[in-house]
Amino acid sequence: MNSKCSASFGLAYRIAVLVFVFVLIGIIGWIIVANWHRIELTIRIIGVAGEALARNLGLFGVLPLMTLGLLVYFAPVVVFMVYARMNGRVLPRMGSSGLYNCVWKQDKWVPAYFALAILTMLWSAAAMVEAKVYVISGTIAQWYFSKEDSRPGRSIRSSLRHAFGPSFGTVCFSGLIMAAVRLVRAAVDSAKREDGTPGIVTLILRCCVNFCMSAIDFLNKFTINFAAITGESYCYSAMMSYELLKRNLLSPVFVETVSTRILVGIIFVLSAVYAIVVCAVLKAVTALGVDAYFVAALAWALLILILGFFVHVMDNVIDTIYVCYAIDRDKGEVCKHEVHEVYVCLPISRGDRPSIATRTPLSV
């Protein structure tokens, strides 16, 4: 079997695949070098976020447990959906040959139940994502606003209690918005695949929808952070987070500066290099043959998954510290000197700074 695979995947194809991988790595490497000033700032910000995570390592245990809890919640819903298909009755139907055949007809409520169950699962999944962001933000905020020589006790437990307690409505509403955004985007993407040559009106509408969805997604990004820090409602947090960033000249260009795409590029390069090293080692010390490529691909996918989870947590930590830094600036305080030394290098908005008399400090 291995000889057949080797014959079908000849040396020329292997060289072509390796050349493609190295070219892709080279392109990403060139992008990293061209944006090195952003990379350097990103590294410093990641260092600050890493220190915050080091003080709250329990998050890496709590977040997977929350995902496991969501799967446990999904289990009975899926079971009920399976049993719902069994609700119906057998009816006789005359076939084309004049003979009667037995057909199964489901009850009328089954399709409606399926739709309700699927929407519930989508909403629950989106709400759990927002709950994770809430827990991360609440935990990191307690670390940020604590004194230098003290450590907040039970910060993760407190954030969990608020996320699934007083602020559960905020989390669910945020999840509902994000679920609606994902459904609209899925509908737009589906329409894009079905339309062969869309007209100019369709393109304009599609661009408008994508812009609105991106704006809602971005607004929600800092709203849930602010709600976790202050405990306010969703709508009030959305308004105050926007006013806070605007009042302190902190532009949303931060997301572009500390770009998730740069982190994803770094992850891809590291995982690709790791996969190549694994493949080379397996080729040198084992006799797996072509199977070594599959093992290397599996190692690449596993490392991508692990690093992707780490980057997701790190991204939320960075956003939370960013909002905390904005609150500090708004109140004229410095809770973490090392954070201010780094975040002061971030680009600011090009708008005019409001006068001190018109500024209303935020009370948290």
UniProtKB/TrEMBL annotation:
GO cellular component: plasma membrane
Transmembrane stretches, start-end: 12-37, 57-84, 113-144, 164-184, 262-286, 292-311
Topology of the protein relative to the lipid bilayer: Multi-pass membrane protein
Protein keywords: Membrane, Transmembrane, Transmembrane helix
Pfam families reported for this sequence: Choline_transpo (PF04515)
Record-linked InterPro entries: Choline_transptr-like (IPR007603)
Record's function text: Choline transporter.
Protein name according to UniProt: Choline transporter-like protein
Phylogenetic placement of the source organism: Eukaryota, Viridiplantae, Streptophyta, Embryophyta, Tracheophyta
